[in-house]
Amino acid sequence: MNSTLIRAARMPDGTRGDIAIVDGLFADPADAVSPSTVIDADGLLALPGLVDMHTHLREPGREDAETVLTGSRAAAAGGYTAVHAMANTSPVADTAGVVEQVHRLGRAAGFTQVVPVGAVTVGLEGSTLAELGAMADSGARVRMFSDDGHCVWDPLVMRRALEYVKAFDGIIAQHAQEPRLTEGAQMNEGAVSAQLGLPGWPAVAEESIIARDVLLAEHVGSRLHVCHVSTAGSVELIRWAKARGIRVTAEVTPHHLILTDEEVRSYDPVFKVNPPLRTEEDVHALRAALADGTIDVVGTDHAPHPAEHKCVEWTAAAMGMVGMETALPVVAHAMADLDFSASDLARVMSARPAQIAGLTHHGSLQIGTGANLVLVEQDAAHTVDPDLHATMGRNSPFRGRTLGTRIVDTFLFGQRVYAAGALGAPLAFTEAGPWND
Amino acid sequence: MKHLLSTADLSRIEAIELLDTAEEMSLVSTREVKKLPVLRGLTVVNLFFEDSTRTRISFEAAAKRLSADVITFSAKGSSVSKGESLQDTAQTLSAMGADGVVIRHSGSGAPHRLATSGWIDAPVVNAGDGTHEHPTQALLDAFTLRRVLAGLPASGPADGARGLALDGAVVGIVGDILHSRVARSNVHLLTTLGARVVLIAPPTLLPIGADTWQCDIAYDLDAAIAEHSFDVVMMLRVQQERMQQAFFPTAREYARRWGLTDTRARALPAHCAIMHPGPMNRGFEIGAAAADSPRAVVLDQVANGVSVRMSVLYRLLTGQSAAAGGREGQS
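Output (structure tokens, whole complex):
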């Protein structure tokens, strides 16, 4: 019996207690009589391992930007015990073969549970449904489908996708971006874009798709997940849809909770992202929505890029920011002024995403479930230095910022993959194990 | 003032100093030997990633009249077309010993990136970036307008404009504001100098967010002409490609509603000057009567462009301000 006892950790509800891990599952501390490892967590906060519904691991195809291994290490360093790998790889993850490849690479890496996301349409082209059933039935057991990076703009294709995945309780994660309204778009459309002379990405391009999609989801009775919500108007639409009983869930990124389009005045492409950074008013609406549950989850939209895609002029630069290793501290920082407790952090970064994605071994500290856990030091001011990150991407917009929360340990099914602030040994995902449940 | 990237960065005093130095420079252009030795031995690189013969030769003339060596680098005949990055280009020029870089780029913010990225240490002059700014165009417009307001010849040597601003002047800028770097630079500079700017355009060609600018906005050109006593109207060029993008129904409808037709030219106050950054689409945004009228100062703008660019290069490459340097150069 392999057992670990974590002593005197502070729980999300504010109480203090011991946490026991036996054979990769949470156990009653009374049953861990002679633990093989004892960890003193006095002063540390224990959260269920974080779950990211939105990550770009770039492999296969862009191994110069990130690999499943380096992305998995970044996940462990950020406290993530499960990450959903988006489908916009090369080749696109639109077949059982590709999702199984990503799944297998994730298992081989052993630093986090990599959950492949399948493309909704062939080649992310928005016209023909990919073999969603085959991906659902594959070894990767895909349940979430997304053309992320592209919007499923055709209303009929979106309707069919929403309907079709009901057969296996799937969910469509929409990248809400009306393509015609955002041709050539470079940043949020508003006072700053007017001055900077950069083509605008209007809020209405996001909101009009969300409005359409929640109505479609209602009509066909399907589950819809809205990726990276970025505007105050989108929040209002989702609030309305939820009040109406529509099965919609929503995500916000850490960067949209803290950065605004004022950053673009520097013309530094590290701030170029899609959807773009919005206004102060949007930031406040997103924070409030995350606090009141209108927005369900935080997803990182971790998007590593090689330096040459960012060391160029703004208009030529790639969109995207890395985010897994700063997500928890950034969210804690962004929500500090609101009444947002450790259990709220656990809800939006672990419990809700696990629930939406159907990951039964993630999202709680409940005895008998997978021992996926992160230990966090809360008053540990440190300066973000992307050069020290595990991801290959250096495109962090938080370089030089001082943040207060630090990841100390990450346990993946009991394996201490991140140990006292450094990468530990990976988990051997064997043929038999709770991860196969 | 290390770079000239945006007219928003210029204080009223700095702007007046640049215009005053340009007055000194305009004297040089009338001399038998049109040259000052002030930048002798220095190299100015014209880095043109976008075609613009007019602006490029204006900067070339300006640099040469200050005795600088000029290297022109246009993207078409360079390695940029082979995928070389802005960073590599900048560092290459730096290694060759550029003392100043004049950059024209189709991407908004490229000059800013060049100036702030640490790739090159030389002063950077924005010669037009995307739909952002074109500061030297605004300076030459301000220079020309200052002459007109003072009742002086619009170009050539003249005494009496030095030290003046544009307080109380009313300026109409008409046309494609959305895509115009000239309009953005002018709104900043002319208001800094005390003028009141009225932008007149179809709503589709005004940026969302323009209501935060320090200027008035109107859709109806006839109403604006009736309402304001313009000292100058500036007609912006409408690019051919906008017509395919459905910003307005047809070229004829645009010309009828926003063109400076002969009738509208007659409706302007008698003292009102007519400007155009060139090249003009005759019969479209500007009619023949306006374009050829004695009140049109389009060619004066071109002449003043050289003086203003001499002033900017002199200021940035020698670090000297005000007209003192210009006088010293004449000796």
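The first helix of chain A runs from residue 68 to 78.
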